[in-house]
Specification:
Length: 425
Amino acid sequence: MPGGAPDEYIADPGLAEVGDRRIRYSERSMPLLTALARRFTAERPFAGMNVAACLHVTRETAVLVRVLRAGGARVALAASNPLSTQDDIAAALAAADGVAVFARAGVDRRAYYEHIALALGDGGPDLVIDDGGDLVNTLHTERADVLPRVRGGVEGTTTGVLRARRMAAEGALAFPVIAASDTPVKRLVDNTHGTGQSVIDGLLRASGILLAGKTVVISGFGTCGVGIADCARGLGARVLITEVDPVRALDAVLRGFRVLTLADAAPLGEVFITATGSAEVVTAEHMAVMRDGAVLANAGHFDVEIDVRALQTLAVAVYPDVRPHADAFELRDGRRLLLLAEGRVVNLVAAEGHPPEVMDLAFGIEALALAWLAGNSEKLSADVHPVPQDIDAEAARLVLAALGAEIDSLTPAQRAYLASWHSGS
Ligand code: NAI
């Protein structure tokens, strides 16, 4: 029981060595967390504190856990989804002093919640990091006895933030929760750059096509659509944009993309990618005029953007798995349309989601927010709070420094000028 929890809560302690190697490999692509590990080793913001975390047990999470430990925390980790648990990573973390790991891939619902309850420990945590709200929920419903100890928590996903907001609205939330899911830096790096690259990754893995020279239609030019469009163009695709928002559409035009309606784009496109967050975007009407071999992929959160049922109805034959995560649908006139990942979010199903550099920023912001919370929780009400703006800027600054990019600072005269309402003359 080296890490503070019996080995029975992980799959195989023998996987620790390979897990450790993989964590170290990912760590090399995580400059922000590496910088924070150094800073927290000196500042010890969590000295003597228990931190309970409920996160996907992945390589990137392991790097975050090491940062918390560097800051002096005793960490207990439970999985936020048993399907995403990497058993080698759980073993590597469990082998480290100060980490109690309760995570095994594929456990059932009962064991999942049992693991979360165990991560709360006997005396309860001082701080929590959650991903989806299950730990915060368990704390309030099953371990109200330890609630007075909890200073606050950080939540990393929209769903968890919504749950915490509902608890706060009912007066049921016992401590402040920082909503780390939606900061300007995270939206830029995660939605635009992370999703942009990984959606194209998923598209290429599942379809196996050459993107250069292809006509790619992207529906939705929001934070995700911008990134997908840039990546597709970077690989030589001719990118067409469809939008419903005139401002977003104007932005697309000014960036050199052709903007048109989906009805007009349907017969032109060779690849269609939806990223709208809306429903029934690509419909039977569009499929009816698409070119033979057209590829359909969705990047939006839910599998409702491409009307898959309409495609099934239109098809006279279906050839499943013509490639991993690609099904071909043959229409009455012999044309075939290729649907990727069953219309589910293509970068997570057919590729690996976000790379470590993206998680570096997301987790770096969470670690900074947690350290801030450790020192400021008494000033905060038991409600959901945004990440303080300077934490976002600080995260961006640290990554820029790690990448060797320097920026200028405002001079005192410039600061005074910008703060004044007098004219410049
Ligand atoms: P956003 O709100 O910034 O952009 C969506 C855009 O789609 C807006 O400009 C909107 O005007 C446009 N739109 C809405 N209905 C449309 C329609 N019928 N036709 C054409 N355009 C339409 O949202 P964001 O951040 O780009 O997210 C989009 C979706 O992607 C959401 O479902 C989000 O949850 C999901 N998402 C997926 C990720 C992934 O890893 N695959 C990562 C982050 C977000």
